[in-house]
Amino acid sequence: MIVGPEMVQQTTDKVKHIRARLKVTQDRQKSYADKRCRPLEFEAGEHVFLRVTLTTGVGRALKARKLTPKFIGPYQITERIGK
């Protein structure tokens, strides 16, 4: 039976090991997601849909997700702002 400082040391070592493994896994998942991600470029005159996140007056997201709209639009881009 381990008591005192040895138990604390083993526990902190295990926590460090778990955190390191989680970091490796998160980095791997991020690299997979980043490979699929592409920058979006829109030109004036194109039509786009906007993703909607509906909120209540309190600021929480609505619970009934089945019937809520996911996108609104189409909206036409009139001019480019920026570069």
Automatic annotation (TrEMBL):
A Pfam cross-reference name: SH3_Tf2-1
Domain of life according to the entry: Eukaryota
Domain Tf2-1-like SH3-like as annotated: residue spans: 45-83
Name recorded for this polypeptide: Tf2-1-like SH3-like domain-containing protein
Organism the protein comes from: Trifolium medium
